[in-house]
Amino acid sequence: MSQSPNVPVSTAHVESGASAPPALLGGPLLGRSSQRERRGVAAVAAGIWGLITLNRKVMSGFAIVGFFTLVALLGPLFIHQNPLKYTSTLLAPPSSAHWLGTNQGGQDVFAQLVIGTRSSLFWAMLTGLIVVCISVTIGLVSGYVGGVVDDGLSLLTNVFLVIPALPLAIVAVQLFARTTLTIVLVVALTNWPWGARVLRAQTLSMRSREFVTAARAGGERTPRIIFFEIFPNEVSIVAASFITTTIQVLLAVAGLEFLGFGDSKLVSWGNMLYGAYNGSALFQGAWWWFAPPGICIALLGSGLALLNFGIDEIADPRLRPVRRPRRFPFKKAVA
Amino acid sequence: MRRLLRRLGLYLLAIWAAVTINFFLPRLAPGNPAEAALMRLEQHGTVTPATLKALQIEFGGDTSDPLLLQYLKYLNNLLHGNLGVSTTYFPSSVGDIINQNIRWTLVLLSLSVLLSFVLGSLIGVFMAWRRGSALDTIFSSLMTFLYSILFPWLALMAVYFLGFQLHWFPFADGYDTTLTQGWNLDFIASAAYHAVLPALTIVVSTIAGWMLTMRNSMITTLSEDYVLMARAKGLTSRRVIFAYAARNAILPSVTGFAIALGTVVGGQLLVEIVFNYPGIGFSLVQAIQGQDYALADGILLLVIVATVFMNFVVDLLYGVLDPRTRQERSA
To answer: Which of A57, A248, A251 is most worth mutating to test chain B (most B CB atoms within 10 A of its CB)?
Structure first.
């Protein structure tokens, strides 16, 4: 009885949607629960470590994301000054006292950057999680149950797929509360359909497989079949969709904050950019003010993207880098 | 044909959903947008009963009608192309203002998206063809970074280095404001010159997605038997690449095109704001800052309808490109 069937790889995935549920991701980690218990925590840890080191892209992506996560978790413990405190050293370039200089209000840029990591990362990941929950539920139910339910949910998916997030978020933020939560809700509302669509297609191709038929014949209840039999085989798509959404939210929240539609009391990367833009950091040549938040966003995003590309490569071996045989210079045979 | 009708029905439904969201948003919001709009209008002096009525229909200040009737009146207004009156640019109607600004956005958006799509896909094709080469490696790492760059931040960087430091390009407004708008050579040249930096920003920040999609899809296609066959027949590389492989590999990119549009339109709004570009994105933010809900609402609606329409166009195109989709019940 095969738990991780070998699914043919379709080329119909766009952006980053890995299509094939790889044995590597689905198999050892989320196999049958009895199996997992038998192997114990150490084995699971070893399994995770094996996954991380399996692919170079996953490894570097994991390192970058891990670094920012550490900064978000522990960084604020090392910052002893209030990042919003005004001082008299205005627009000072980087020095030993202010590692990344100060802004126009004399606030320490480095302190803001470290403190801001937490909110930027937290909201991005939280929304990624919300979106994944919605798309998994709708995608799997729609694909497995079929019929009228599928028609209705597919319609809903396709309708929400075309609604652009950013303009809606701008209007919603203005009408409702000017908080990150509003932005996050709008982004979640407009971002789930893509994952749901890919997952639905995958579930559709999986529902007629033997292990699903076997489970059905064995009298398993529908929710159990959907979430415990089919779902573990789609972990790679779910992971990819989580990461893509996290990047999207990171950029959307920062973009809106940059426009001044964010929560102004919050210290975050987007708010730093807003301050820098409106304080004309650009024309005063204060690169240490406007460059770091943007670089951090791009770096964190790159780390996430690397994870995503790595998952793609694990899922589809054809995308893995090829090693070209080195050309040896031909030497004429000397007689 | 049936497929197209189904898609058309779907998109009409999407537009209806957008309109309905648009109707309920200001009504669900705390505070009273209609009151706020009214107060702003009164500053301009004249509020005719007709304007008042229109405002109330739009924002729900009029509680004498039941909600359903308000909704029907709102739909009726929309169907007659009546988007209300802007409070910021009183007495211009929202329709007029959008009409003025939309062409700037359209030209900039279509040019830069097309450029980014074509260029990105071409680079993707060559990356896949010369896989593992220096070109592939360099572009792959560049791609990862560009994939997650923040639109407005890149715009700031472009403004700072290319505009402010090097003085190569102008970095504010859509044209030289000393010129009058019109179809003369001076104005068009100036508009094109002013569009370089915004367009460049959009191209650079969206190109990575196309490169990635095309590269991955091309790699998969290149391992197909018919490509091997084409090579075995001794066809030129160019013919194998474009007539055999890329032709089939482009399909996921086309699907992606429709999905990316929402993001690109959103990003375009941000870019316009950084460059003070006279498009609808800039108007949207101004409207929001001036609490001009009628204008903001109208722009939001327009953006959604435009995105839906472009999706439909891509759908039509897809039917032409991929014969398989013309059959019923295909995935």
So the answer is: A251
**Distance separating alpha carbons of residues B118 and B97, to the nearest angstrom:** 32
Q: DSSP letter at A191? A: H
CB-CB under 8 Å, B285 with A324: no
Which positions in chain A touch B309 (Cβ < 8 Å)?
none
To which residue do tokens 């729900």 refer?
A: B60
ipTM of the shown complex:
0.74
Contact yes or no for B219 and A319 at CB 8 A: yes
Token pair recorded at residue B320: 């032409």
Mean per-residue pLDDT, B50-63: 63
Mutual angle of helices B67-79 and B2-28, in 10-degree steps: 120
Are A195 and A168 in contact by the 8 Å Cβ rule? The answer is no
**Does residue A13 sit at the B interface (CB-CB below 8 Å)?**
yes
Range with lowest mean pLDDT among A69-78, B22-31, B67-76, B226-235 = B22-31
Among A164, A177, A322, select the one facing B131 at the smallest CB separation: A322
User: How many CB atoms lie under 10 A from the CB of residue B243?
Assistant: 12
- What pLDDT score was predicted for residue B45? 60
Q: Greater confidence, B300 or B116? A: B116
Q: What is the pLDDT of residues B9-50, one digit of tens each?
A: 888 888 888 788 777 777 776 666 666 666 666 666 666 666
From A170's Cα to the closest Cα of chain B, the distance in A is 8
The answer to whether residue A194 neighbours chain B at the CB level (below 8 Å) is yes
Cα four-point dihedral sign A217, A223, A227, A228: negative
CA distance to A20, A86, A161, B220, B312, per residue, from A197 (Å): 15, 49, 9, 22, 18
Name the residue with tokens 């929950």: A133
All CATH 1.10.3720.10 domain ranges of chain B, comma separated, are 94-330
What is residue B57's predicted lDDT score, i.e. its pLDDT? Answer: 65
| CATH number, domain B94-330 | 1.10.3720.10
Tell me what pLDDT residue A4 has: 32
Interface of A with B in 61-90 (CB under 8 A): none
CB contact A201 to B (< 8 Å): yes
* A311 touching B (Cβ < 8 Å): no
A28 phi/psi in degrees, rounded to 5: -65, -30
pLDDT per position as a tens digit, B310-328: 778 877 777 777 766 655 4
Q: State which residues of chain A have pLDDT below 50.
A: 1-36, 335
In A, minimum Cα distance to B144 occurs at A302
